[in-house]
Amino acid sequence: MASIEVITINGYTAFEDVSVHVGFNEAAGSFSAKLAAELGASATNRIFDVGTAVTITTNGETLLTGHVDSKEPHIAAKEAYITISGRSKSADLVDSSGKHETGYFENKTPLEIGQAISQGIGAQWETDQQLEKVEQYKLQQGESCFRCVEKLARQQGMTITGTAEGNARITKAGSKRQAGSLVEGQNIKSGTAHHNGSNRHSTIIVRGQRPFGHGDENLQIEATEQDGAVKRMRPLIIVQDEDTDKQRARKRAKNRKDRAAGNALKATIVVQGFHDDAGQLWWAGNLVWTESPFLDIAQDMLIESVDFNQSDGGSISTLNLVDPRAYGGEGSAGSGNQSGGEWNMG
After folding, report:
1. Is the pLDDT of residue 246 over 90?
2. What confidence score (pLDDT) does residue 270 get?
3. According to the CATH classification, is domain 177-196+265-343 in 2.40.50.140?
4. Which one-letter DSSP state was computed for residue 117?
5. Architecture of domain 93-171
């Protein structure tokens, strides 16, 4: 692990403060920086004009590839500085409307649809998963590239995350793991846990019907999931507005139960530096064993987002963690879990 972490933006290092944010459920990362105008106000303004392409690195490793969105020079009697902020190249996929000659697709994967409606945009769609073909899809007028692909990917249990290179990746939570662990008394500088079961229900019932066909199998579709960790009677009924069938209703009920259980356990942990025990960058979407008796956590957690910050006080990473079930992974019910018993599936 490097003893000194240095963030650079296009080679520039004269920052009073710089932060980079990457989130697993965010298609574009973001950054902000407070610049000392050591090259002179005019020169510093020019090199960080709005729209400037930037590559942000730490000790040679890429954190973010994107553009400056905004710039705010400030001058006073005893101080002068410039603040800039921006996002990954994939922000253009989030902000831009999809374009296609017909807007109609048959038997295409979410990746293929995304590529077809985003032609000409600098950021690219990619995936590390095997995606299913979508039977039919019609692009809505003005619909953004991201919104189109995100809802299709979500139906397959996938999440869209931004890459360090500025692309948008269709992926699944927990496919990679950080080296080592986050352990109270060892590498956790500070931490806060959030145990909240207010969104969990004892029974989740999904009901719907098909727009065609007849008989109970088409007109009275119902699927039920039980959350054994909820000891009180707290039923939830979800009515599917769109076309559904028994299998899709069952999947939605299970996803609703798992996501609520996952989001019931979150934590925010601060560590020194930007790397784990093996010198790998902390990164959103990775799993890490987290153990803190005071926070009442002893299980694998998913890194939902990371904030890398460099200032006069040094370099720290703020890790926002969540039970992996929030993204369809295995969480506190998994092997080795010793977190508070109320967070188990039951």
Report:
1. no
2. 98
3. no
4. H
5. 3-Layer(bab) Sandwich (3.55)
